[in-house]
Amino acid sequence: MLDISGVYPLKMNIVGVLKESHSPDDKAIFTDMKTAWVIQGLGHGHEDLSKAADKSVLLNVKDGNYTANAKLYQYNTVSQENVDEFHFHGDQSAFPVTAVIAVPSNEKNKTLLMGRYISAGETSQIVKPEKVIEKLLANIFKIKGFLDSVFVIVAVSTLLLLGLVLMLSLRLRSREVQTMYRLGSSRFKIAELLGFEIGIILVVSLFFSSILLIATMRYVSEFIKVFIV
User: Fold this and answer.
1) Whole-prediction pTM value?
2) Hey, which residues does 86 pair with through a beta bridge?
């Protein structure tokens, strides 16, 4: 936007929207290789210089090769009329390709292909998706087992702490219990009153815990994307 000599962003047409698959593909844009290169700025389109109506855009003409100056208008929209005018300068074999999905026709070809990427000086790598996923899932299940163990330990500790608090509370309120007994309350009635108090605490705790649980289930994906992934 701030580059006065720059080219306007290329307007691309969406030719189709795939059905939602609930996977990372839902946020992906699929194009062919040359379209990706054009978006990256490695290719462009403009009118045929040999047929240019405005000769002032020509900087040099030599041996049938035309060189244009910055005045040349470059297309910022790909259409059926100008799609053939888009081209690349340079060696396309050196253009960037970050990844390739290879599907060998047989086991021999697969072995030969993998053998090309095992040298020490090789800057690229080849991986088997199923092996990578299996390793990743193994690590995830290890972490899950560890977290489950921690959860059990925390749950047992919480129950023991709750029992200790209740026992200490009853001991501290022993004189209160004796007063109720002397006023004519039966043991069952005293237990009912104490149980009712404990029930109120549990209900209130479950209420706030449910709110936290619902909030966690609602925003856990966003939390993982922002703070973990």
Assistant:
1) 0.47
2) 45
Domain encompassing residue 84 = 1-98
Could you tell me if residue 133 is inside a domain? no
Going residue by residue through the chain (229 aa), what tens digit of pLDDT does each one get?
565 655 667 788 888 999 988 888 888 889 888 888 888 878 877 766 666 666 666 656 666 566 665 656 677 788 788 788 787 888 888 888 888 888 888 989 888 888 888 777 777 888 888 888 888 888 888 888 888 898 899 989 988 998 888 888 878 888 888 888 888 888 888 888 888 888 888 899 889 989 988 888 888 777 777 766 5
Sign of CA dihedral 96, 98, 103, 106: positive
Provide the b/e sequence for 64-103 (b: ≥16 CB within 10 Å).
eeeebeeebeebeebeeeeeeebeeeeeeeeeeeeeeeee
Q: Does the residue 192 lie in any domain?
A: yes
Does residue 41 belong to any structural domain of this protein?
Answer: yes
Residue 219 lies inside a defined structural domain of this protein:
yes
Rg for the chain, CA atoms, rounded? 36
Domain end point (choices 98, 131, 146):
98
